[in-house]
């Protein structure tokens, strides 16, 4: 089964995708400045590898694939650019993986970072995908302008929510519109 077919099945199973995901034209910056959006941020650049080493544990960062020096600098740069552009963030939610928590803390040092299990990777357990995707979708659906929230997570989670592939440190700005998530912009910093 292709990754596109898997993604579509996850979205359908989570009850999110009934029709193709809508696209809008405003820039990511305009959408973030206006509020009422979720800022989906894939964790910053990591040490080389895919997934995590066998036997990794969420309570022990030494067992996981973590941010590289470049990734730590990238996360700080993301936060600096958001602040310089006047983007207000009301809550910062993160996967429990250390690379996500570290990205969130470096990008949003002025905020308490709240672990949110719906953002945890399901790369190793695809059966967890629909439930996590639905929970993240529901949280995004509850955001109302002028509030905005940042969600620091993994490629697989963002792909399941939006159908969009993202690189390390890339942002997708999404908004809940008429039962769907609308991608309002994309920004790589």
Examine the secondary-structure arrangement and name the CATH architecture.
3-Layer(aba) Sandwich
Quickly name the level 1 CATH class: Alpha Beta
* Number of DSSP helical runs: 6
Fourth-tier CATH superfamily name: Phosphoglycerate mutase-like
Q: How many strands? A: 6
- Could you give the order of strands across the largest sheet? 3-2-4-1-5-6
How far is the first residue's CA from the last residue's CA? 33 Å
Find the structural class using helix and strand composition.
Answer: alpha/beta
Average pLDDT, all residues: 89
Overall geometric form:
globular
Tell me about the largest β-sheet: 6 strands, mixed
Rounded to an integer in angstroms, the radius of gyration calculated over CA atoms is 15 Å
The run of helices and strands is HHEHEHEHEHEE
User: How helical, in percent, are the residues?
Assistant: 25-40%
Low-confidence sequence ranges: 12-25
Per CATH, what is the topology? Rossmann fold
Q: Which percent band covers the strand fraction?
A: 15-25%
Integer tally of domains = 1
